[in-house]
Amino acid sequence: MTDKKKHVILMGMPGSGKSSLGFVLSKLMRLPFVDTDYYIIKKEQKSVSDIFAMHGEDYFRKLEKQILLEIVENEPSVISTGGGMPCFFDNMDIMNEFAVTVYLEVAPEQLFEHLKNDKKRPLVKDRTTEELMDYINTSLMQRKSYYEKADIRIRADNNTPVQLATDLYKKLIEHKS
Hints:
The chain has 177 residues and is α/β, with parallel strands linked by helices. The protein has a single domain (7-168), classed as Rossmann fold (3-Layer(aba) Sandwich), CATH 3.40.50.300. 55% of the residues lie in helices and 12% in strands. It has 7 helices and 5 strands. Helix 3 (48-72) crosses helix 4 (91-98).
């Protein structure tokens, strides 16, 4: 990675495995791991659901931008973003400037399986099966053009985090050269 692109940023839909992969990849690369949602939770002393309920999505998106700007100024790290982070403001440009960005591609049916019982994510909880599948397909369609600006795309459907981290680590080495 270049001096300016000192981070690795994982992005993709909720349920694509960004946090699980990020944790394993950070160990493999011997870098700190930062999950932007947990960073926000720690900073705000509230859950993401509570932030959405109390202040709305616009406030949350502004927080995401703030912490993105903070994180990219810190030491090199592996960063897992919230699913929508790349799609707001100029976040994708910032991410591509300071990091090797990685889009974890996952089939909508696989995302559904990961999200169907998730009661913590404010944008997916309390949805019927049909509403959740519709949300996944619509969001994927809206976000795909942002995600596809990533430096690296990797299929993340059926591999374990360890397999994915190993494959991605090889791709990062290739990308560097």
